[in-house]
Batch of 2 targets.
Target 1
Amino acid sequence: MPLPEHGLTKDEILTTLAAKRSRDARWQDGRTFGMVYDGGPSVHEVAEAVALLYLHENALNTRAFPSLGEIQSEVCASVAEMLHGGDTASGFMTSGGTESILMAVKSARERGRAERNITAPEMVLPASAHAAFHKAAHYFGLQVHKVPVRDDWRADVDAMASRVNDNTVLVVGSAPQYPQGVIDPIPELAALATSVGANFHTDACMGGFVLPFMEMLGYPVAPWDFRVEGVTTISADIHKLGYAPKGASVLMHRNKALRRYQTFVFDDWLGGFYASPAMQGTRPGLPMATAWAVMNHLGVDGYKRLTSVSIDTARRMAEGVRGIDGLQVLGEPEAQLVTIATAPGWEDRIDIFAVGDALQARGWFLDRQGPPDSLHSTVSAGNAPAIEDYLRDLRACVEAVAGNRTDDRSTNYATLE
Ligand SMILES: *Cc1c(COP(=O)(O)O)cnc(C)c1O
């Protein structure tokens, strides 16, 4: 499609986009379990006003926009506090969980090279670790040891220990891991990394803005943050359960000395001193400012309220699913993630992907994932009003598709075009 010869008016633009959006997921109704996390009307109002203020700003150079430098340092200080990083933890904002993970892997590689002379770096991951770690290995030239998880879906410490060696620069665990929502045995994994002088990363992209508030609310939470010895980096996504618009995450290091392995500094070209914390050059101010705004608008009280609603809703979902013949919840999810699959013995009658298709036809959106074939839900506060409708539709869909199998076995966490 060529660019229009004569530009469209604002009204034409808005009408065209409204038509395009008509088939998009209806997250505003609480019917999408993932991808958009709705903090409610006051969060929208604040984020939208601040987005307009910062729509054009660029954090490439914080001498031009000192407010964005302050925003980054205040967001990181708040997150350091949430992660119990004491006086030493230090981080940078990134564009999302993937960029935080890319930087965690790159930092581990640099540290291995500088402190241990490692030229063929390796990392040890549970099979549940996010795809972004494999992307990082591909980008940055690390060898991956991917280790099967235990029956309860948690990382298998002994099996991972057998893959750790003198070239290991990074060991990874998640809090919680994405596929089944369980928290890996972080203290044991971090000790494993420490035993060879490697970094340990807790991937709290999902849990970073949930687990601290669950703990404050009195839920039991397995250890995962900087209170665990040996944890060197943690990723926490503000654009997930931090309820900020897309494009905001933090990578936090235990201290500034470790953070130095993240950054890139260069001045041997014709354009002058170039210092860069992460992958981007030009850095949109909008997601940084809206993240700051949503965090400060919600505060501890707001996050405790939203966390309580999310966890109640996730537990209601799990309980409802367990009450439907032919379905099971995988593992014992500890926070806001719930993954459902066909119950053992029902494989001939219930195809979970056919159930997913039937749900989608009724306006619900859950990711297909596997192995094993399953449907993933990230539950957040915005899903609360819809949860009873969901369970009713889920029960109806299971009955409607009984005996049917769909030929489409594809999964769809992320797409290209
Ligand atoms: C979402 C997620 C990521 C990746 O984050 P993006 O913001 O989608 O790039 C990494 N790890 C976990 C556990 C996640 O849930």
Note: The mean pLDDT is 97.
Target 2
Amino acid sequence: MKINGNFDKLVPNYLFADVARKTNEFIAANPDKKVIRLGIGDVTLPLAPVVVDAMQRGCEDLRDQKTFKGYPEYEGYDFVRNKISDYYQSFGVKIDADEIFISDGAKSDCGNIGDIFSQDNTVLIPDPVYPVYVDANIMAGRNIIYAPAGEDDNFLPMPDKNVKADIIYLCSPNNPTGAAYNFGQLKEWVEYALENDAVILYDAAYEAFIRDELPRSIYCIDGARECAIELCSLSKTAGFTGVRCGYTVVPKELVRGGKKLHDMWYRRQATKFNGVSWAVQCAAAAVFTPEGQRQCRKNLDYYHENAMLIAKTLDELGIYYTGGKNSPYIWMKCPFNMSSWEFFDYLLSNAAVVGTPGEGFGSCGKGYFRLTSFNSHEKTAEAAERMKDILEFRLNVNS
Ligand SMILES: *Cc1c(COP(=O)(O)O)cnc(C)c1O
């Protein structure tokens, strides 16, 4: 018996453990200081009332012999898939209901989708980005190359014609940078994928945060149906991080090696996944009703106000950042040329504000820092005020 030796190649990531340890040490040493957490990568507002009502009705169905449900369909119930198809239509994208696979979240699908691809593929992953893509592909033993991002491209890396990749992960709006591709930029990625016979795995977990005229889906781009799979989630858009529901789109035109990836993904799910519970799918369908959209939008607006407050503060301080407008994340350059961890310590000890050091999301994150809008208005405003107090003086002296 041999274990999967690829696990030895995983780089230990103590980032969130280190953040928690340093924060707890600070609280123990400074019991009088009120720590504000702007490092939270999880929603903080409760579910929309219509969503909870639908979930409750779903539970009641299970109490009654006549409405009881056993195993769901692997790919999700039609009434949910139809609603998601209509949702795509609402921003001008035509996706058939039977191209949509309901899942227990985008994180699982980001990794599981690898089952339908050979281990021999080279995987291109932006840096910095959500660490799941890298670790899932290390576990699978695939060769990984990086698309480095930085201030030159405002953290939106573009394809390099000299680099040959088979699988490309893109995340827009991005976690952690909050940066979002425009139509022209995504078109370049689609063209690159088509030229290289590659497949784009497009993580659209934050599409509902988009406010500018930016693509909400990779399928806004011509040709994407022949080269892209889209991963979506109700986690950030509807507060489902604890409930668990997402969906993945595999268009029927997507063919590689003479096989429809749609059929391969169906077979994979039918083999290793037994579907999402009835009550959760009832709740998911409620998200896509007009009232569900209105109520979820209220929460998104709340986070948006927080993001804009942080953005305004950084504008006033003259600090470079991306994100905020179309994302719950703000990605700022650490002032005074501090490293990510130096700035973490500086912000914690002087302002009692916690954020996330950028280097936890890839080596190009060194010297940057992620703040999130997942907190209350009051605490976000207080944190912004404290940051201004500690940075204004020093930035003015420097300039
Ligand atoms: C939070 C997040 C997800 C959502 O994952 P779920 O499993 O649906 O909760 C997916 N991708 C990115 C980039 C995320 O930040």
Note: The chain has twelve helices and 15 strands.
